[in-house]
Amino acid sequence: MKQPDIVIIGSGIGGATVASALAGSGARIVILERGERLADTPETRSYRSIFVDGHFRPREMWREPDGTAFNPGNFYFVGGNSKLFGAVLLRYRAEDFTEMQHLGGVSPAWPFPYQELEPWYGKAERLFEVRGELGQDPTEPAHSTPYSHGPVPDEPAIARARAELKAQGLHPATLPLGVDIDAWLAGGRTPWDGFPNTGKGKRDAESAPLAVALKDPNIELVTSAHVETLEAGRGGRIEAVHYTHKGERKQLSPKLVILSAGAINSAAILLRSGDGKGIANRSDQVGRNFMNHNSSAMLAINPFRRNDSVYQKTLMLNDYYLTGGRCGLPLGNVQLLGKINGDILKANAPWYAPRFALDFMAGHAVDWYMMTEDLPHPESRIMVDGKGIIMQWRRSNMESLSGLEAKMRAHFKAAGYPIVLSRPFDKRTPSHQCGTVRMGNDPASAPLDPLCRAFDHQNLFVVDGGCLPTSAAVNPALTIAAQALRVADHIVSKELAA
Question: Where does the record place the Glucose-methanol-choline oxidoreductase N-terminal domain (predicted)?
Fold first, then answer.
């Protein structure tokens, strides 16, 4: 293989979006993806295969510091975790870029304000063909461009839920979604949240930015290419990318390396590099400040009213995003889950729970997702042991989650749902993993500068959820994409032009 100008490691939201913005630059680019394209099989629309059998989960185990092993919910396909994401493409709120006091501590300020990223948010929304509607959400940040597509419509049971919440003085708002609902339902009448995308119904990293990138003949995608380490030479430049391709060990020596393997694996690659001593880690922050949203599922059940929604996930509530907690402190975001069924409940219920009861509950529930900010902490971290990954997740700000649940339980009961049940998500669910290789202005406290360049290696960029300094309390995909476009613009105008 001829040596490329740029190697991008990973084809998820970060890597694919960077690649799309580098298309047409004239640079020779190779994207190394450890997975393969996700095949269109019956399992992709099967509740049981996905949520009970774990058909798409990886065949690997991670460990906790005490040695306890668990199977992570990260996915290795072209398009990364976005292949199964809920396609929610929300902007961080403007306040999320500032220092903010929470019940569990302080969320630090970003190295730049919302206004710096705002134009790139608009470009990302167009790239992912976001469906949405402005003017409904009191926390909505300024938009210089409108959505180019109208919203995915509420189903009847959800339109009713929207009216019930509005009647209580709340501000239910339409979720901005990367979903062509007609195309999605043509492939099967299921939700898209948690279901793999094998067509064009969901605008994930593969179907949106990667499709754009691969129109450029100078950009090549190599699948089953598992990157293990990066080699840094004298002067701090990354001189080689070492990877295994279908059992054969290989290396590339590009001019630039863009690491976009995801918050967990990007940190692991850096920590394994440098003869096992780690690279890009003068700050000792690589792998640290791991964040994974504090979240729970909440079922609002009316046993006398059936919810016959197919996809359900079109509504959010941010009335308690910036306030509502003790002393008026922030709580978080509420949004709908994709419609659950008895298989999903069975996967999380005691073995003796009767199936007919689970089916009845699922058929009479409106299913919600509570999400609050996980604050960065240096002891919440990813570590490596050879090729193994150790996750030490130090949860924070849990009082916000319990406070949000209490608020919404009262609202749902007032809306006519006498039974309200909730269950937290655990470490097996990748609830928007971020941190681990964060941006900052000071190389003593952050591995990356505000344009995602490693302070220690001038030809290394890290562009994925790992670069985010904070988790906020909304889905991070659009923020990752916006930052990826911003970084790519810098690379084209400054790095490739030099």
Answer: 201-293
Tokens of 260: 């976009």
CA-wise closest residue to 404 among 293, 302, 319: 319
**Whole-number pLDDT of residue 498:** 65
89's enclosing H/E stretch is none
Confirm whether 186 is domain-assigned. Answer: yes
Whole domain around residue 111: which residue ranges?
A: 6-495
Average pLDDT, the chain: 95
Q: Is residue 228 part of a domain?
A: yes
**The token pair that represents 347 in the structure block:** 């996967």
| Residues in contact with 402: Cβ distance below 8 Å, sequence separation at least 6, in sequence order | none
Q: How far apart are CA 210 and CA 191, in angstroms?
A: 23
Number of domains present in the structure of the chain:
1
pLDDT at site 387: 87
For helices 114-127 and 13-22, angle between their N-to-C axes, nearest 10 degrees: 80
Q: How many CA atoms lie within 13 A of 496 on its CB side?
A: 21
The domain that holds 191 is classified in CATH as 3.50.50.60
Name residue 122's amino acid: G
pTM above 0.85, yes or no: yes
Interval 115-141: pLDDT, tens: 999 999 999 999 999 999 999 999 999
CA–CA gap between residue 135 and residue 173 (Å, rounded) = 9
Token readout for 262 is: 């995801």
Is 483:117 a contact under the CB 8 Å cutoff?
A: yes
| Predicted pLDDT at 430 | 67
Q: Confirm if 324 and 333 have CB atoms less than 8 A apart.
A: no
Determine the pLDDT at residue 297: 94
The answer as to whether 1 is a domain residue is no
H/E/C letters for each residue in 429-492?
Answer: CCCCCEEECCECCCCCCCCECCCCEECCCCCEEECCHHHCCCCCCCCCHHHHHHHHHHHHHHHH
φ and ψ at residue 342, rounded to 5 degrees: -60, -30
Given strand 294-301, what is the order of strands in its sheet?
Answer: 173-174, 315-317, 332-336, 365-372, 294-301, 419-424
Please check whether residue 145 lies inside any domain of the structure.
Answer: yes
